[in-house]
Design a protein that fits this description.
Elements lengths: L17 H16 L4 E2 H10 L26 H4 L1 H18 L3 E5 L5 H10 L5 E5 L3 H10 L7 E4 L6 E8 L8 E6 L2 E9 L5 E7 L14 E5 L1 H13 E13 L1 H4 L10 E4 L2 E3 L10 E3 L2 E2 H10 L3 E7 H7 L2 H7 L2 H8 L4 H5 L2 E8 L18
């Protein structure tokens, strides 16, 4: 996650909390068990999801508008209820074309998007299932979604078969990634070690891994590859027997992701509404994300049998779903917040929407103007 935060590095390294110290100790033990070197994807998985200690597994507040609230970043549903109201138009369209009446949301955060979809879709939603690994977030979701308690359920794992519309807002960016470094023409995998003073450090080792596209030019290059995101999409495709899936996140198609100028990668951390590029400090206390390679995600879905319904910017998607009309009817202050969803320098262009259909595709709402599937 980590959608919107001030793009500056904090003036000093944040003081680690007691839970961060415990999380760091857990990571050190994992590094020791692995012979002194831990691939970054395993480090990221522990830092974010270690039971009771990882960033998404403990009780700190994560979502909010201001750092004074103790939050780290704001996501689109927290920014404006018009986000969920507009997405509901696309979900209703998918219900109509797939003959389904259930929503499956991955990584429901504070529960804001679920509340917006449930309120907007009303009785059209027979059941709303949330798949979330965080027990702390689940408690907050249950409180927020109490008005729909009879229709909302939580599960820890996917069933063998799903029928319905899947929604994932800022889910793919929080899936662990592997780091690859090209130095003097040789590709290396970046991992984490423990330094003599006990701090974490980087160590690069030769690897047979390669990015899907070789970045042009001879320059040194740092980037990410996304095996977990692709595996997640493949598993979802296997289980989604009837329905559709919508993923909203920040990222690029392959040609932009591995562009020669993007030589420092996209890895980013978020804490107290500030961003930095050092995941090795305050472990467990801050979010770690990487931009999504939407070409890789789309190919993973296609290879597993899904049809791409469309791919476009968040701005084009929300405009096609009727956001302008909702903004016109909203108070001025709410209009100003909703505008951040579509402004190019805010979330409108960096965030993209990729949708799949299980079965036959259709001319889906959200992609009728400005579909960019040809750029994937």
């Amino acid at each position: 996650m980590g959608a919107v935060s001030t793009p500056t590095t904090p003036p000093s390294v944040p003081t680690a909390s007691s839970s961060s110290a415990a999380c760091a100790a857990l990571v050190r033990r994992a590094i020791e068990r692995d012979g002194g070197w831990l691939p970054f994807d395993r480090f990221m998985a522990l830092a974010l999801y270690a039971p009771g200690l990882g960033y998404y597994a403990h009780g700190s507040r994560k979502f909010g508008h201001l750092p004074q609230s103790g939050s780290d970043f704001v996501t689109a549903p927290e920014l404006s209820p018009l986000f969920g109201q507009s997405l509901a138009v696309a979900v209703a369209d998918a219900f109509d074309h797939t003959g389904t009446d259930e929503v499956w949301e991955f990584g429901a955060g504070s529960g804001a998007l679920a509340a917006q979809l449930l309120e907007s879709l009303g009785e059209r939603v027979a059941r709303y299932t949330i798949v979330d690994l965080s027990g702390a977030l689940r408690a907050r979701q249950q409180e927020r979604l109490a008005p729909w308690a009879g229709r909302v359920r939580w599960v820890d794992a996917l069933p063998d078969a799903i029928e319905g519309v899947v929604v994932g807002n800022e889910v793919l960016d929080a899936m662990p990634v592997q780091l690859l470094v090209r130095r003097a023409g040789q590709w290396l995998e970046r991992g984490v070690t423990v330094q003599p003073d006990g701090a974490f450090g980087w160590d690069d080792r030769p690897t047979g891994l390669r990015p899907p596209v070789e970045p042009e030019g001879p320059q040194d290059y740092l980037t990410e590859v996304h095996p977990q995101a692709r595996a997640f999409i493949a598993t979802l495709a296997e289980r989604l027997k009837r329905g559709a899936a919508y993923f909203l996140d920040y990222g690029f198609p392959e040609s932009e992701y591995y562009h020669p100028q993007r030589h420092m990668g996209t890895l980013m951390c978020h804490q107290a509404h500030r961003s930095d590029d050092n995941p090795l400090v305050a472990v467990g206390d801050k979010d770690i994300t990487a931009h999504v390679d939407f070409t890789g995600v789309a190919l993973a879905g296609q290879d597993a049998g899904l049809e791409v319904l469309g791919y476009t910017s968040q701005a084009r998607f929300l405009l096609d779903c009727g956001l302008p009309e909702r903004m016109m009817a909203a108070p001025l202050a709410e209009r100003a917040l909703a505008a951040r969803l579509i402004h190019e320098h805010e979330m409108g262009e960096l965030f993209k929407v990729l949708a799949f259909a299980a079965g036959e595709s259709w001319d889906a709402v959200g992609f009728r103007q400005g579909d960019r599937s040809h750029t994937l």
